[in-house]
Amino acid sequence: MSSDKLRIFLKIICYTLIGLCALASIDDWINGRWSEMHNHINWTLWIGSTVMLITIVERQTKEIEVKDSYIESLEEYKVLTDEHIVTLKKLIEAHKTHSEGLEDQIKTHKELNVINEKIIEEYKNQKPSRF
Question: Residues 21, 26, 30, CA angle at the centre, nearest 5°?
Fold first, then answer.
């Protein structure tokens, strides 16, 4: 059983238990069994808190995975941009007479590279704790 299916199965069990405990507490209230009613209400609250915690952890995990994949994409883009700059420099040296337009492209790519580095660092610094 995969972890996603197991998590879904666990949530279904928790929601079922919440419903059963809520119904049992209503039945206890109708029949005047106050201590049992409080016990079932406590179980409902504890299980509900567990479900909320599971949901929060899942969302944080997905958020971290998305940010990690975004950072990885930005880093790959930076590497490709660096390689592109190197090839443009080689092309400039091969065509010294037409270098003005190519130097502008290199300057633009260097500026993009600096911006990408800032974005990567910003996302790395804002990464939430996994706990």
Answer: 145
